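Dear colleague,

Following up on Tuesday's group meeting, I ran the structure prediction for the two-component complex that the binding team flagged. I've pasted the input sequences exactly as they went in, so you can double-check that nothing got truncated or mislabelled along the way. The structure tokens for the whole assembly follow below. Feel free to forward this to whoever is handling the docking comparison.

Inputs:
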Amino acid sequence: MHSPVRLVVDSVASFNVLLLDALSGTARERPLAFPLDATLREHFCRLDTADGPGPFAFGICLADAHFSDDTLWTRTGADLPEDCFGRNARMWISDVDRVVLAQSLFLIAWQSVRSLPSLSSVLFGMTPQVHDQFRTRTLADVMGFARSRSQWLYPRWHNRPEVWTHLLGAQPGRKRRPAPQLRLLQACASESERLLSSGLRVSAPASTPPRKSLR
Amino acid sequence: MRSADRFELRRRNYDLAQRMIAFGARTATVMHWTGLSEYVVKGIARRYVPSASIPPRRRISFSNRSVTGSPRLEAEILAFVYLAMEVDVIPAQMVKDARQRLPSVSRGERFMETFEGYAALVPTGQLTLEQALALVYTCASHRQLSLKQCAVCADWMLTHRYGRNTRCPFCRMDVPVADGSEDTQVQGPGP
């Protein structure tokens, strides 16, 4: 029997394949609407996920729906903004596909905050307030979110082409290279207030030599 | 303590022991975190986790070599420490004598959730449970390791406190070092 951790991670990996497929389709058919850096378009044109997740089985969610924006998630009804990622941001995918992707994402997120509350902030980049929004809502509410907030769906780290380059350049044969999952976790760690406000972050310059070497 | 609470605590101890043994924890480590006797821990291992890998006999402590050994391990260490911080396995405040003060059933459960999550997220990971525990103690006592910002991608990296790495493991792998004068480690003070 699979553990809850494995179930959630596998679900997120399956969703990521859907997202990569959607991005790949946009790169091939509508290059002008491609939402990521233009240098990545060629990578996405060559992307083939037909055989399942394979090397792209990332347990960290590659899509963002403003999970780190508390104030946006507390708004309701007519108060909801449309294109939060800028003008024409919603054009990268058709309306129907966007709602399907949003339903999948929100359903997995809803399941994740119930079965694996401690790690959902890591997997989706959620703040505690957004986490609570999902935890206290019913499945019907979450499906409603998918209709009313599907326009928020956008690739995560859309302004960080180096993260995507590393993911797409994943070659299983290269053993010395750190796994692409580790690159995602590094990107997540760099946004973690908890980690950065801990005592591990030193204010001294990076190259402060040890006392021993000063002798 | 009521008998129901005692029973519940005992059940959690057994459950934690079983999860730790399944990931190759040493008997002494399981005893330290659960408070169970050696006899009981070995009994659980024989009865419930016969397929568990044979744990190392000696106690593993964190060493400088761990962060300077390979870019891959360095990236793994950051990933695990990040997860452990998010789940509050590693407290934000410094803990003196972490090896004695940190072990508890609730923290052990969170640790196992973190380690299981890490193993699921990084299926090719090489970090063992004993190394992960040694990392928790090291980071909680704020010795040896510190967060620094990569000079190329501006992401954060976890490296030796007195190390001279200016680039994260990913940027080091992408761009070769020109003359070898940079991105080499100095040996810092021991633990």
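Chain B touches chain A through 55 residues (CB under 8 Å).

Cheers,
M.
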